[in-house]
Amino acid sequence: MDPLIAIDPSQVYRPELDNADKEQWLKSQGIDTAGIEFDVGRDKNHFREFEESSVASKEQMETVKRTYKLMHTYQTVDFVKQKKAKYEKLELGEYTIMEALDMINSVIDEADPDTSVPNIFHAFQTAERIREIHPDKDWFHLVGLIHDLGKILATQGDPHWCVTGDTFPVGCAYADSIVYRDTSFVDNPDLHNPQYNTKLGIYKENCGLDNVLISWGHDEYLYQVLVANGCTIPEEGLCMIRYHSLYPWHTGGDYTYLCNNKDVEMLRWIREFNKFDLYSKGDVLPDIDALRPYYQSLIDKYVPGKIKF
């Protein structure tokens, strides 16, 4: 595996630098800047454009569509079960939260039309926007920082179609609100399995999302990591992490028939988080070096030391 490049993005985040200076600095760190844009103040109507994007390049959109096509072809019930069994063993290694954040410097989400910069940028953008609106909820700030940390899987050789992107339940009929629903599932063998093609499929009504197999990705992986390591983030925060990519549910309004009372209660928290996760991608970029001490104090409080991944 090629060595990872762990950049210090603080220069990129400083708004006093113009785009040319930011690009020059990124190149000095060995980062390919092709396609990277700094789109501060973007109109909210121009997020999650999966057909014709006003932000993403043609090449980026082709990558996004290809990633979803692969995801919707290979994410089956059997595949999800295999991935859960493999990664719940937590055998990737032991890292601190900050070490893991530095590792995802090398990850640019191939399923996201809204950003073309390494994922650590988005982590601090989200955390700072939450901190501004919810100053009294320090656990919420930390959730914003680490919510995508499961993308460390992409640094271990896993393709983006089983790490990034919107998630969806497997083992039941695919909802209409799934991205590219009409065209991208045609080669998925589960589509042709009668057991999986009814509204409820293999599940019982109101069984609860805890009992539903969700397509494998960074959400479920990080949730399992945090729970296994005794993280003390409240249940609301853990559910934000576990289901923040489940757009067909929390934004599309589908799969409510699988939810129990706990899911209904958690939904408002997940939707509150989603506002920051999505719309912070066009924010002014903060100075990470100046912010690290504050966020390290939250890590020490809720998930200290080295943990198993």
Net shape: globular
Give the percentage of residues in beta strands.
under 5%
Low-pLDDT residue intervals, each spanning 5 or more residues: 1-22, 28-47
User: How many DSSP-defined strands?
Assistant: 2
What is the gyration radius calculated from CA atoms?
A: 19 Å
Mean pLDDT: 84
* Tally of DSSP helical segments: 13
Query: What is the succession of H and E elements?
Result: HHHHEHHHHHHHHHE
Helical content (DSSP H or I, runs of 4+): 40-55%
**Order of strands across the widest beta sheet?**
1-2
Biggest sheet record: 2 strands, antiparallel
Could you give the distance between the termini?
18 Å
Q: Which class do the helix and strand fractions yield?
A: mainly alpha
Describe this protein's structure.
By secondary structure, the protein is an all-alpha fold. It contains 13 helices and 2 strands; from the N terminus they run H-H-H-H-E-H-H-H-H-H-H-H-H-H-E. Strands 1-2 form a two-stranded antiparallel ribbon. The model is unreliable at 1-22 and 28-47 (pLDDT under 50).
How would you describe this structure in keywords?
single chain; 309 residues; two-stranded antiparallel ribbon; 2 strands; disordered N terminus
